[in-house]
Specification:
Aspartate Aminotransferase, domain 1; Aspartate Aminotransferase, domain 2; 2 domains; 7-stranded mixed beta sheet; 16% strand; globular; binds pyridoxal-5'-phosphate; histidine biosynthesis; EC 2.6.1.9; PyrdxlP-dep_Trfase; Aminotransferase_I/II_large
């Protein structure tokens, strides 16, 4: 008798490992393990969320009309070429399902966001990993790995957990070097934090091509990680394919309402940006003072390499931080065995982290 078994690929998905212990009973951690907004959501999003409460016996708008129009207004893009999902993770799954399956290859980069791997395996496609150079995406290495079977190329720009980015000119070079049948998916989750002259979220790359999709999230700058909202902007045919793959009610009423308010709340965005601009350099500098190597980040987190000393591994540092009530993210899943990803927190959280690291590293 044949035994029940999931499709090939499902068993190869590495389980998600949260930094927070599951049995902690809601202990008050200083949680710098997930890359969320330390200021929380803005007042406008909160107001819209509360207002939506009276409507939650209804199904949400399947067309996501108000939310798509708000995103279109904020970024000056065509709402008909936008679709939304329950977080950008769902969008990554949807686009992978829509364009890749068994026998197809999907290209990623060495330390690229792990959500890509999960989606590729879940779709039954084969991941192909291009090497990076000093924790930065190597466009030529990616182009070299593309072939007739490559259906999608994922690029997280800036990337999590490295915090590094490649300039728009390099993204254009990547697009030009990939085969035309390969959909380039630009995951711009941290674009709002990266205000560099040579960087863009990819909007104009989408507009100049018929095979580029940009994916964005409300979980970072907009502080709505718990509501699960992400969106994509791309060619009409690609958006249509994603819409065919997605459930009609995938983004809840409350999530659509809060996100529509959040995306137009530029005041909260500026406050968040200012907070990050002040504390990212502070944290980087203070971590270096206690002997940690910090990679330059354009995001709301830092990749920190713990000094290699046989008597003091990353686990000992994690244990010490946990005793002080602080959580950060180990990134051995990314092949970065002696590194931690540390999110920029509120002032008191940043100071507590630096003090605790100083205790164990000095
Ligand atoms: C690069 C990148 N893409 C996508 C996501 C998924 O975000 P969400 O599903 O919350 O929108 C994350 C979350 O950490 C991320 O770092």
């Amino acid at each position: 008798m044949e035994l029940l078994s999931p499709r090939p690929g499902i068993g190869q998905i590495k389980p998600y490992r949260p930094a927070r212990p599951p049995q902690d009973g809601g202990a008050a951690w200083v949680d710098l393990s997930l890359t969320v907004n330390p200021l929380g959501p803005g007042q406008k999003a909160l107001h819209a969320y509360r207002h939506a409460a009276g409507q939650i016996h209804r199904y949400p708008d399947w067309a996501q009309d108000q939310l798509r129009r708000a995103i279109g207004q904020r970024y000056d893009i065509n709402p008909h070429r936008i679709t939304c999902a329950a977080g950008s993770d769902e969008m990554i799954h949807l686009v992978t399902q829509a364009f890749a399956g068994p026998g197809d290859e999907v290209l990623c980069h060495e330390h690229g966001y792990r959500g890509f791997m999960k989606a590729i395996r879940a779709a039954g496609a084969t991941p192909v990993i291009a090497a990076e150079r000093d924790l930065v995406v190597d466009v030529e290495a990616m182009i070299d790995r593309a072939n007739a079977k490559t259906k999608i190329c994922f690029l997280a720009n800036p990337n999590n957990p490295t915090g590094t980015y490649i300039p728009t000119e390099a993204v254009q070079r990547l697009r030009a070097g990939l085969p035309p049948h390969t959909l380039l998916v630009l995951d711009s989750a941290y674009a709002d934090y990266c205000r560099r002259d040579n960087y863009s979220d990819g909007t104009e790359v989408v507009e100049n091509c018929d095979n580029v999709l940009m994916v964005r999230t409300f979980s970072k700058m907009h502080g709505l990680a718990g509501l699960r909202v992400g969106w994509a902007y791309g060619p009409a045919a690609v958006i249509e394919a994603i819409n065919q793959a997605r459930g009609p009610f995938n983004v809840s009423i409350a999530a659509q309402a809060a996100a529509a308010a959040a995306v137009l709340d530029t005041e909260h965005e500026e406050a968040t940006y200012a907070h990050n601009s002040a504390w990212l350099p502070w944290l980087s500098h203070e971590l270096e003072q206690v002997g940690v190597r910090v990679y330059p980040s354009v995001c709301n987190f830092i990749l920190a390499r713990i000094p290699t000393d046989p008597s003091l591994g990353v686990q000992a540092v994690l244990d010490h931080l946990a005793r002080r009530g602080i959580l950060v993210k180990p990134v051995h899943d990314y092949g970065l065995i002696d590194c931690l990803r540390i999110t920029v927190g509120r002032e008191e959280e940043n100071r507590a982290l630096v003090a605790a690291l100083g205790e164990i590293l000095s």
